[in-house]
Amino acid sequence: MSFQDTSILTFLMVGCQRCGTTWTAAALVDHPNIFLPEKKQSYFFNRYYDKGIDWYLNKFAGVEPRHKAVGEIATDYCLPDSIPRMAKHFPNIKLLMVMRNPIDRAYSNYQTRQIEFNWSSFEDAIESDSDILERGQYSDQIDNLLEYYNRDQILFLLYDDLQFDDRLYLKKIIEFIGVDSEVKSKLIGQRKNAAVFPKLRNSLHKLGLDPVVRIIRKSIIGDWLRRSRKKKGAGYKPMNSETRKKLIEHFRPYNSRLSTQLQRDLSHWNT
Questions:
Q1: Quick check: is 265 in a domain?
Q2: ∠ at Cα 50 (46, 51), nearest 5°?
């Protein structure tokens, strides 16, 4: 198989950040007929495009005949600079995009990056980094995608549905990318993301021990921490109520347009 051949890829999950994509990646790689690169994201279309398409396609060197669906989970490929590059090389590919209540997404984004960027507060973060809110303006991203791809090439998903019924959520994805949806996944009923043990994660990050975080995340200890955290209902400290009110008004027009685009009631995102 030549790695010059872009037809090797059949799907890309193009976003969005902090919307359950790590769980989805783990569930998909568990399927015998799906191939994902060992590293979740290559950042090719947004950071490393100058390395060339062959560099990117070499990420899929492990593809075997049994792999009927081959793709990547990449949360930055729904952004404006990535889309035309992606369409140039993969105009006929299937795309998946998952979205979450943009306020909750932004707050989760802040929590996982606070140490790295030394933000003093959530308010400081959204004031100093416009990307945090822009990533939740999903209707704009959809408009950009539809300039280059047909609507039937894209499966739009909601994080709400993952939370409500992860089995059905995964089944919808697997059917869309064209492999057997009856294969069982051990990820059903589990949370799996970078923030399942934030205090430990942040402490190790300060010590420059990010590889240890990755090892724990994939280990039996990581599974235990996820189950324990889920049982305790652990989460982030509540957001400032005034900040939330301001963000509701900021996102209201975007949510309204998204509701029309998806033909879904998203009124609960405005509360």
A1: no
A2: 105
Contacts of 189 (CB under 8 A, 6+ apart): 166
Q: pTM to 2 decimals?
A: 0.84
Place of tokens 């590293």: 39
pLDDT at 65 over 70: yes
The reply to whether 24 falls in a domain is: yes
Q: How many residues does the chain have?
A: 271
Q: Looking at the domain assignment, is residue 73 inside a domain?
A: yes
Report how many domains make up the chain: 1
- Separation of alpha carbons 235 and 104, rounded Å: 12
102: pLDDT strictly greater than 60: yes
Would you say residue 266 lies in a domain? no
Residue 43, phi-psi category: left (phi > 0), alpha (psi -120 to 50), beta (remainder): left
* Residue 185 domain boundaries: 6-102+136-192
Output helix, strand, coil percentages for the chain, rounded to the nearest 5. 55, 10, 40
pLDDT at res. 212: 61
